[in-house]
Fold this sequence. Notes:
This protein has two domains: 1-51 and 105-118, no CATH class; 136-421, NAD(P)-binding Rossmann-like Domain (Rossmann fold, 3-Layer(aba) Sandwich), CATH 3.40.50. Helices cover 31% and strands 10% of the residues. The protein has helices at residues 21-30, 154-165, 177-191, 206-219, 246-261, 263-270, 305-326, 352-361, 368-380, 407-421, and strands at residues 46-47, 136-137, 145-149, 169-174, 196-200, 225-228, 276-281, 332-338, 390-393, 396-398.
Amino acid sequence: MSQPQVCLLALPRASPTTPSRTARAERSLFADGPIAHLPVGELCQRCSLGLRPPRPRRPPDPVTPPASPRGAPAPERRDRGPRGRPPSPVRPRDGDRANPRPADRPRPSPRPPDGCRRPRRRVDGGTIGNVLPGGCLPATVQPLTYLVTGANSGIGRETARGLADAGHRVLMLCRDEAKATEARADVVDTTGNDDVEIVLCDLSVQDEIQQAAYEISQRADALDVLVNNAGLVLHEREITPDGHEYQFAVNHLAPFLLTHELLDPLREAGSQGRAARVVTVASEAHRSAGSVPDGFENQEDSYRGFKVYAQTKLYNILFTRALALRLDPGIVTANCLHPGVVGSNFGREGPWYVRWFMKIARPFLTQPDEAADTSLFLATSPEVEDDTGRYYIDREARDPSGKAQDEALAAELWRVSEEATGADSWPKPR
């Protein structure tokens, strides 16, 4: 049986010193790798690398030598190489060499198909999405449908970009229409994938969450992955139209309600042979949450913005662990992650000293495209297809704080969240 074809950008270049590197890479992919089961000709036909043809190169401008002074002889051309070394001799062709290429030495990998370009980044692939090394999507696998909340900036935009770059369909849930339109245009322009859609929703308003979930279910019968990314930190207590503290509403109640409203399309996707996924962005800040207030919402007399943010990140982990106990892991899995200390728009709503600190520290913090790595890993990688209820940092499962593993606290938070949202038709815990 002939070997399947693969975009050779994914394979190492052969060199005289390592003549078998390409062969080893091919064996690792074809013999027992992620593409061993695919037939000939099914790879690189639908490839995020080839969605946009390369831009034509502009020919170099002709260089006009400076004019010599009148009557002076033209300067002698110095045929020198870099840093004054003599230039290298012209390399003869194989047939003209005194020592031609050995017959057993592999030739360099051929160029990729016309229009193929290197991706912005590598997105891991596997059973869910089958994104191959180099970013290629097999033609036999239909692109999956992803929903990313808070996708107009920061980690959310970079997560949407990575998924679109892999050839998937991406729904970007955003609050502001102008920012959402600009973000979508940026993602489409940098990836060449125009299968990117906007869903407008203010996550602080529960009616809008329910309306957005209905709209999503009308657009997509099956939702393969939900990425609960949206979050914020405020330094003054605000109340939502539904009467809840703003951070508690957006950072916790919103993903709780949105996940509940999208269970049907998630289950539909999970019933097609690969489990759907719920990925929630939490934070290591949960370790500084301190004592949990009564009713899980902070009151005016004890409000400290970063502490409230840390508490909502604790709730994200408690929610993920409790959700995993209520879902069949063969149909839908649930995991959460810490993205790093991110130099995005975080802290823009804070007092002047917080904004000043973030401006100074931003170059030294994790950038959004790097922070999106673990989100993309949990959303696409086959390494975690059987994992559920876990907390990840830098692609590795870690133990959260003891309070985040408190089952009684998780059960009480679940009860309060059901009462606050009316989302009470969850499956019973296993």
